[in-house]
Amino acid sequence: MKAIGWTQEMIEILTETYPVESTKYTSQLLGISVNAVKKKASELGLVKYKKSKWLERANFIRQHFHNMSFDSMAKELGIALISVRRIAAAIGLKRSEPDRFAMISKARSELISRERRRVVFGFDPVSHIKVVTNRQRIHLRAKMKAKGYVVAEERNILYYPADIKRCTEREKNGIGLGLRFMPLPISEELLTAVM
Question: Is the pTM of this model over 0.70?
Answer without folding.
Answer: no
